[in-house]
TrEMBL record:
This is Nitrate reductase-like protein NarX. Residues 6-225 form the NarG-like domain. It comes from Nocardia ignorata. Keywords: Cell membrane, Electron transport, Heme, Iron, Membrane, Metal-binding, Nitrate assimilation, Oxidoreductase, Transmembrane, Transmembrane helix, Transport. InterPro entries: Heme-iron_electron_transfer (IPR051936), NarG-like_domain (IPR023234), NarG-like_sf (IPR036197), Nitrate_red_gam (IPR003816).
Amino acid sequence: MGAGEIFWDIVPYVTLAIVVVGTWWRYRYDKFGWTTRSSQLYENRLLRIASPMFHFGILVVIVGHVIGLIIPQSWTDALGLSQHAYHLQAITLGTIAGVSTLVGIALLIYRRRTNGPVFTATTTNDKIMYVVLVAAIVAGLATTLIGSGVVGEEHNYRQTVSPWFRSIWILQPRGDLMMQAPLSFQVHALIAMALFALWPFTRLVHAFSAPIGYLFRPYVVYRSREAATADQLVGSQPRRRGW
Ligand code: HEM
């Protein structure tokens, strides 16, 4: 058994342990800091475009990963979906979602860096996390390009990366499979694990408790103080003199 194989057998469990213990620790000691650290009050114009762009993009990327990593190739084969057809839809959807995620996060980071109060409200851990997050997305897009044969040789990751991913969860790690994947896939998975390890110590914890309604609600609900008719005059409207 080579060092590389042992690495891919063990590191996923180290990552999982950090995520579980780290999340428990964060909740125990920083319950009231369990937040996105919203900066909407400081800046809203860019946020309104960039945040949905990033979040919808990453949701599609996640769905893509669930399909690509969890569903065995034998199942899609049995459904009559050819490898070519699978690949084509994965590349098309994956690239659109991946690029949207990347542009979204680029705008969010630009906003965070150029808006004084937003930058001041950014913790060191979050700054490190942003670098790793962008690296994970860029490396992911690179694997799509490389794996699809656009650059270099085509690689069917559903026979290497995907069974490796599943082997972790059934406690029969197959690091040897990961060693058969091209370097770009190994780099992508490694950066992803670094991101998971950082997760509990950053604002990413909000993903564990994000209400789905968040995605569809207006950012801040503004109500006009102008009432159309006299009988709608309520609350903070100036009081009219009585008789
Ligand atoms: C251990 C965890 C992960 C594994 C094994 C993994 C594996 C893969 C594989 C095999 C692809 C190629 C998909 C294709 O070409 O059809 C890919 C693409 C991609 N990955 Fe990951 N990934 C992981 C985690 C992540 C994370 C945490 C992120 C982002 C934060 C991410 C972002 C992307 C992106 C943006 C792409 C480009 C294609 C797309 O948009 O789906 N991945 N990943």
